[in-house]
Amino acid sequence: MILWATARQLWLLGLIVPAYVLALVILDDRSASLPAVSGGSPATVLSLLVPLLVVLGLLHCLGRGLPDQEHTGVRRTWRYDLALAVAVVAPAVPLGRALAQWLDTPTLAATGRTLLFLCGLMLLVRGLADDRVAGAAPVVWLVLVTLLGYGHAGYPHPWTVVLLPPGDEGAWAVSAAVFAAGLALLPRRGRVRSG
Amino acid sequence: MGFLTSLRVSSVAWVLLPTLVVSWVMTEDRTRFAVEGYGAAAANSALEALFVPAAACAGCAAWEAWRLRRAGIWRLPHGRGRYAVAANALAPVALLGAAGLLTSLASAWVELRAVPDLAGVPMLLTGVLVLVSHSAVGFLLGSLLPGLLSAPLMLLASYLWMGMPATMEPPLRYLNGLPTGSVQVTETFAVGSWAAPGLLALGLVAGTMAAVAPLLRQVAVRVLAAAGCVTAAALGAYAIVADWEYEPRTVPRAFTPVCAGEAPAVCVPPEYRAALPGAREAADEVIPLLAAAGFTVPERIVMQSDRAPLPENSWLFYSDPTLTEGQHRESIAFSPLPWHPPCSFATTTDWDLESTARAWLWLTAGEPETFNRHDEHLRAAEEIRALPVAEQQEWFRSIEEPLTVCRPEVL
Predict the structure, then answer these.
(1) Domain extents for chain A?
(2) Which of A10, A66, B51, B181 has a Cα-to-Cα distance from A97 of 20 to 30 A?
(3) Are B368 and B303 in contact (CB under 8 A)?
(4) What does the alpha-carbon distance between residue B186 and residue B183 come to, in Å, rounded to a whole number?
(5) Does A83 touch chain B (CB under 8 A)?
(6) Cβ-defined contact of B166 to A33 (cutoff 8 Å)
(7) What ranges do the domains of chain B cover?
(8) Do A194 and B146 touch (CB under 8 A)?
């Protein structure tokens, strides 16, 4: 277990998680108009991008393993990886709600859902394709939703998931499903080592 | 390694098609408000989609750098210099950037039927420099950042750097090379539009090259040299656009207008040739009424930049092919208003007086029913209209000074 924790560089997550909270507090409801195909999207809240910190950090940690040796090992380290992913992502949901209440910024309540979705997407792509593409997938998704995600009236399209209001139950369900599917593919570990 | 082999094994092979598609769509979207047939507008629209190939180049360059690092290229004894090795790895990235920019230009050509004119060439060269700088920085950071993270982080950083400054305060919004608005048919790019981002991009490339310079043996020296290059370039670029306001600065465009009729001739830029019949017709109806109100009919009524001094014996008006008959009449009716350069930020001419003058001109041009000014201005204008013609003209001459002098705006 200690070897696993050392190899995965868990200390990095120890730095990233406080940075994630701090970034959410600092960014609060700040927003910016990012380029969009509809000719000017409504301002995108910058807290939408913060979950990438955790997603990419988790990807790096998961990618620190030795895939071949771990495949043939007696101990199933993928279970530790699975527990790590859940332990990192799950608290973000109540944390987002708590921050939203504390800072009186309703949009922050969606950050946990965004993290669920992006992390699930990363794990899905990691399982289906490659670690290297897995890192790009959540970033490309966010770029795509800011580019194409708003309709002419400025409302987000349902397919964007992460742009939907914090109370959208459908978006929560999709995010949870994507995360669960990503976790299910976790044993099909990555083939490329980070570093 | 041959170029085709480099391309085949590089990340560019995956990214090329999506980048080209998004570049095309973004440019097409950006041409909606651009002037058809105007070369500078074509260059501007193509560059408004520059963030797409820039982010793709940054991400792919970081990816290629990681591949080289994983292969241990930099630790091996080598027969070729570092720059040559890096250039070889970045050749497909250069193709990606060039293809992205050319796709944008092709999309702009299809939509606007225009190729960039001479004024757009420095802008496009700056665009190329920006792509090179994103690739260079992506390659450098790709060599330093953790492997799996370098490409997505560079992709995101490049996208945010290109996308976000447009919503920020000046002069930051003028440093990334992405145009912040469309260019009018009577305007063209100011030197600072391309000089500032070009200088910063050049500094980033120089800084990257200094950071890996084989001649500088110590890391600290390399870091200092790189930081010096980037800082000097950033300060220089900042100085160029330091006094720019929220709207990007432009300069009047030199063009030979197309004119219709005489006494007065009505002249518009060649791209707006289609508006000429409507403008001429409106002038034929409105000018006699203005002459009857005591105005001396000018030789020409011209559409040109309001930053350029108005030629002698000319009035200024606005036209474009989408204007209705009524809007053309309104535009011609307001053309006797005295010319003045646009007021700078937080200053304005006497707005109340200008509204009254416009109302009076509108009544004089014989179209009282569709005028959408405040009633108070219309009432004031009607009172002036009740005066003898000579006194009305005297009043109009008396307000020329307040209509041309910019004073601090009282909020």
Answers:
(1) 2-184
(2) A10
(3) no
(4) 8
(5) no
(6) yes
(7) 3-252, 258-408
(8) yes
